[in-house]
Amino acid sequence: MRTSVKQLAVAAFCLANAACMEGAGPSLLTSPKILAMRVQTSSTSTSSTSSAYLIDAVGHEIEEITYKICVSPWLPDEQGVNCSSLEFPLPPGPVPDSTFIDLDAYSIPDDYRARLETLYIRADDTSGNVVPAIFELELNGRIDNPELESISINDEPAENWSPAVGEHTVSLNFRDGYDPTGTITSFFTTEGSFSPWRSFDGLPSTLTIETEPASLKIYVITRRPGEGVSWVTKEVQQ
Amino acid sequence: MRRGNYLHVAVLVIALGLSSTASAQEATSEAAAEPKKPRVVPPKLNSQRPVVECAALPFDSKEKFKVSLIVSTEGRAEEIQLVKSSTTACSDLVINAVKSLSFSPALVDEKPAAVRIRWTVLVKGPPKPKPPPKPTSDIEGKLQERGSRQVLPGLVVKLLPYNVQAITDKNGVFVFESVPEGPATLLVPSYDHEEFQIEVEVPIQEKLVLKLQPLPKSKYRISVERQRPDASRVIVSAKEAAEIPGGAGDPVKVIEVMPGVARVSAAGPNAGQIIVRGSAPEDTKNFIDGLPSPQLYHFGNLYSILQEVYIDTVDFRTGGFSVEYGDALGGILNLTLAPIPTDGSHFEADVNVYHTSIAGSTTVGDKWAVSAGVRRSYIDAILPAILEGSGAGADLIAAPVYYDYQVRADYNPDPKGQLRILAYGSDDKLAVEFAEPAAQDPQTTGFGINQKVHQIQAYYEYKFSRDFNLSAGITSGYQGLRFNIGEDRTFKLRVCPLVLRSEFGYRISNKLRLRAGVLGSTQNAGVKLNLPRRGKEGQVDDNGAGDEVFNIDVIAWQNRLDAWTELQYNPVKTVGLIVGARSANWLGSFSDSAAEPRVTLYWQALENTQLSFGAGLNYQAPLPDETADEVGNPDLLAERSIYSVLGLKQQFSDIFSFNLQFFSKELSSLVSPVPFDFENPNQVPYDNEATGSVIGGEILAQLATERFTAWLSYSLSRSVRTDRPGEPERLFSFDQTHVLSFVSSVIFGAGFKGGVRVRYSTGNPFTPLTTGYYDASSDVYVPRPVGSPLSARLQDFFALDVRISKEFRFDNWLLETYLEVNNATNRENVENVGYSYDYSERSDINGLPLVPSFGLKAVY
Are strands A148-153 and A156-157 parallel, antiparallel or unpaired? Predict the structure, then answer.
């Protein structure tokens, strides 16, 4: 309870202090970063069991992503982020920056296997200079990745848009009939900034560009907390 | 022999001479035959000698009239002749008076004989007529302090020119009986008030009310303290405490400047947490009139929930306290209740930047006095504007607001007994909804908090005799706490406690006193939560990543039964030994027993020098969530502290004193989180493996003159913990090596008073963090420590607060105004550190800048 009260107090204090607000804003990408990971039940699995999953990730300026799995939470400490139990490397998946998990393929002790409820999948850039990303895969959980299909910019298809100085509205296009209520969408750009950086319920965000860029890349990532992730990227070269 | 008797004898001799002459012939004739001397017995008056009043004589004069008379053989007065007199006007009166006399006749040879005698009669003039009586009347009046209408008992009132005096009784009443009508002067000599003199014309039809103007001097004196079972204790009157700069009139905030108390954050996540001698905030327990209080402050410890008018003293024990109190490893904060005035009706209204409060009291009959008060904040009217201006991007769903109320009653059936009743409550609310998901955690779409308490307590004291007294108290109520972070993470708590407490004191002899008591409590608590397990002190706040979220809905009972006894032995006047023991027993969700022996020794080495030593054991139950079946370990043991305190108290007259104390605490069986072990899935989340120690010294120096008072407290301490056996020792999260507070106030006169508060303290330790990993499931960044736990410190704290007040005093009411400037130097004190959403950058979170505040208080 104390931590939660403390979080409340921090939040309340930040409101009055405004010191916790971000400066340039997190929507502007200035360095390599893994932005999201997701899981899908693998249609390419050769396993007859339901223990096969396809994991992929989206990152900014990432050369190649490698994956590892831990059967307990990764623990951050002074030395880094470590697995305190069993750790396995994962093979590359069928698509770039992906991996494939087939639990039946691993020699997990029976007593461990019986207790397995969650897998902790870690993604690293091969350079080792990128903050690792960790995804919790609930083995009995529901996978419901939002059905985000594309984005529109200024109410036009993104393909027709070229970046110019000014404000541009970036809106989300979901599959027909999909209800985005409860989703949280993050917007990233390599030029300018988005406001808001994140939006509720599939609402749009405004991209503000102050100098005309030679190239620009937009990442739009929609999450349904605890259930799934989808993303759309848009790269424009002048 | 009186002069009158000589005269009588002379007359008798003459009479006898006459008698002998008369019988001489017989004697001559008989002498030849047989010479014989007759035996004569003179006549004798049968009644009192008369005093004749004669109006002809002057008033109150006396005269002697001489008469000649014959006393017959029958004893009657005959042939009365006035021989000598100053006036003839009284002759008849004298003769008549003599005539009425009855004698025993003279005897000659035992035979009655008529003889003539001379006699003196006293004649007096009429009494001087008395003047008619002069009329008188009583004077009754009452002494009151001008403005506050406070009655003034024990003061001398002189009545001139009669030069008599009276002393006012407990109600400030004086009486002069049978004062002659006419002009008179009443004079009240100066003591704490200006000399008062009034000319009156007796009789006075109405009861006088004399209003005395208080002198512009401090009423506070440093008094010699008696030996107490508590090794470290400071008591401050609420009126004095309320005037401390920076406290905005809240007397309870005086503990912020007490020795042994770490600097209390005014804002931020640690706001208002009271850290006593290196112990955790939950180790210090709160009481009102000796009965446990679930809540003394509004959220953030912004203000205490009792109005100043209801508090008599702030009684704070920083350690080494009597066995009367238990279940605490830190300190004991007790607010004693102020008696309700019994001299009529009083009202008070207080308006400041935080809230408005009103309170009123009156007497009901001879034995009851009742009072009620209410207070409401209006931060809800101010904060939305601040948020709008700050661009913080948040909407207040329910702006922060607090209410509180107090209802008091005193029953004084006789001088030996008193019943004090208090009902109080508060309700604090705040809810915020963010315009966009929080950068650090997108699921935090807002937060809300609501805490409320409704409590009633009664305490009865009765003094059977000078040697024996008994008291008993009861308290019960309802406490509720709800908060939510976003929509999913919620916590609801409901607690209904019932506490009974009783004790007695008995003086066995002049050298030996006994005190003993019991405390019983039962508490029903209901908890509903959807949260991860809370972090413990010293742990890195990892933003909740990987934490198991618990969904719990439970009802639990927790009971307690404690008994204590304490013996004070004074072999000589200068030495006191207080030995006590407490038996603590917890039953219910947490069960354990503990024996707490404690001893305190006093030695009055010199007249103004006292040495003291205290040592003993304290035990405290773990927090409820730590022993809950669902998220904790019900087999935990009580946490333990072995303390020792060495003190020196030196007093220099009633102006200056200092109190030096050295203390140490060895903490053991502290609750510690058990590290995650995948191979042991059934491990308990907590055990009692943590230990700690605190060592330090503190000084409290006080100076009090008529117009200047000052208070200096300084603490030097080190508080450390070892979370698990074999792990390195670390600093306690709130360890502050140096804590210095200086408070002073000056009375300028004409109602003006000024004061300053200066505070300095070492910054709190913290664990520096950097980016650990990106939690792609929750879309949050999880930090990792850069160095060892709590290896860095915040910047040192310094603040200067200034207060100036002006009192407008009228005959029947007074108005107090004050202006306070908190952080007058506008120093950017660091209250905490904050991080960017991905922990790549660290920034300081500063405390409040220069904040002026203003207040008005009207007292009737």
Answer: antiparallel
